[in-house]
């Protein structure tokens, strides 16, 4: 796993997160320690989904607890954004916004079951 990029998302429900990422985005299960955490992968991305019972879900010294959501996100490149959005919508996925176009390409934000964002990005010229 030395060549993997590791990202941790705080989630409300580890099993729901694993199922969602596998079913909708093609992630593969590495290990499952639910309800604490699981790690899944897609290509060189290892995503740790950590629930409230994980060490990552523990309160900080000041009492603040990690929560899902925010604007940080993983970024997945797709060949055809419109086709991918259609497939995901048919599977019941929710999007945070409409497609945004810029000089580098087009993007849209997909919302996981806990409110974390996944950016789907189609580079310009594809």
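^ structure tokens above, recovered residues below v
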């Amino acid at each position: 796993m030395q060549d993997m990029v590791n990202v941790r998302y705080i989630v409300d429900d580890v099993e729901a997160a694993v199922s969602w990422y596998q079913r909708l985005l093609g992630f593969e299960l590495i290990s499952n320690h639910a309800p604490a955490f699981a790690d899944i992968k897609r290509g060189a991305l290892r995503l740790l989904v950590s629930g409230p019972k994980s060490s990552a879900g523990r309160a900080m010294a000041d009492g603040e607890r990690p929560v899902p959501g925010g604007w940080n996100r993983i970024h997945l490149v797709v060949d055809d954004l419109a086709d991918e959005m259609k497939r995901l919508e048919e599977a019941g996925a929710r999007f945070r916004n409409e497609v945004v176009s810029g000089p580098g390409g087009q993007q849209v934000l997909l919302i996981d079951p806990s409110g974390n964002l996944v950016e789907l990005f189609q580079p310009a010229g594809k």
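The mean pLDDT is 94.
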